[in-house]
Specification:
By secondary structure, this protein is α/β, with parallel strands linked by helices. Helix content is 52%, strand content 10%. It has a six-stranded parallel sheet, sandwiched between helices.
């Protein structure tokens, strides 16, 4: 059969070309594949939406670097945007020095996109959102924050004295934080679960890479974590929830990424089906040998 011969003799370079197009085109022209929202993602969204009063505080841990930025950066943006849309205050914190640059980039982008889209409800650095200065120590920092956050850091990541910032008004320790969402692709998530939640009772949500998500389902079942965003899909689900609410105006990085990923997976499936058809037809033509 002519088609089977074509499949068997197809130059691999054409396959690589089509695969490249499957990945590139969705970034230029987003498709918007349908996506079901999972319970762990909805749990964090609902907590911010329904359980935190206006003026409350969301703490976001940016403990990642450029190697996991593709999955975790969209999570930071969408959670910060959600908090600001409900007139909550947002604090970023990082236990690793490379996380400071990640958090500053998120803050800059979120403020720009929000203020461009909401001229009557402007948000300000130091008033509505800021980054706590990096302090070495990891678990020691987490524990000290449970006693006094301002004494732990003294300054924000921009060199301003924390006690002078409006965003820190009436915030002393974890008792004044409504929710902490830790974004990391490493075991630092456990530091927050063990010390901040286990010792101080802080509500903790998790945002992690897809490959690490399976490690934390037991913490969801035990209620030590209120919810989880797993990988790019988790971030895309959250973007869709905010879009339905009508408060997300920026480029949906995670949704676009999922479009590209899904297109590539569909192409792989087609190749697998065609390859198996070609194999069995060729085998039959050769008499089953």
């Amino acid at each position: 059969m002519r088609f089977i011969n074509f499949i068997n003799k197809l130059d691999k370079r054409w396959i690589y070309l089509v695969l490249a197009l499957c990945i590139i085109i969705p970034f230029l022209f987003p498709i918007g594949f349908p996506m079901k929202t999972t319970a762990p993602v909805k749990s964090i969204y609902d907590f911010i939406e329904d359980s935190i009063p206006e003026g409350g505080v969301v703490l976001i841990g940016a403990d990642y670097d450029p190697s996991t930025m593709a999955e975790l950066h969209p999570m930071a943006k969408v959670i910060a945007t959600h908090a600001l849309s409900n007139n909550l205050r947002v604090l970023f914190v990082t236990l690793y020095p490379q996380g400071a640059g990640m958090a500053q980039d998120v803050i800059e982008n979120v403020l720009r996109e929000w203020n461009n889209s909401n001229p009557d409800n402007q948000k300000e650095l130091g008033k509505d959102i800021t980054l706590l200065a990096y302090v070495p120590g990891v678990s020691a920092v987490v524990l000290k924050m449970g006693e006094d956050i301002i004494e732990t850091f003294n300054e924000d990541g921009y060199g301003n004295k924390l006690s002078d910032l409006e965003v820190m008004k009436e915030i002393k320790n974890y008792n004044d934080i409504d929710l902490m969402v830790e974004l990391a692709g490493s075991a630092v998530v456990l530091t927050w679960l063990i010390y901040a939640n286990g010792r101080y009772g802080l509500n903790v949500g998790i945002g992690t890479t897809a490959v690490s998500a399976a490690e934390y389902y037991s913490y969801l079942q035990s209620k030590q974590a209120i919810g989880m965003l797993g990988g790019l899909k988790g971030a895309a689900e959250y973007e869709n929830l905010l879009s339905k609410k009508g408060v997300y105006w920026g480029r949906k990085d995670a949704t676009v990424g999922m479009d590209a990923q899904s297109s590539a997976h569909i192409f792989f499936i087609i190749l697998i089906v065609l390859g198996n058809i070609a194999y069995f037809v060729s085998k039959k033509q050769k008499g089953g040998r």
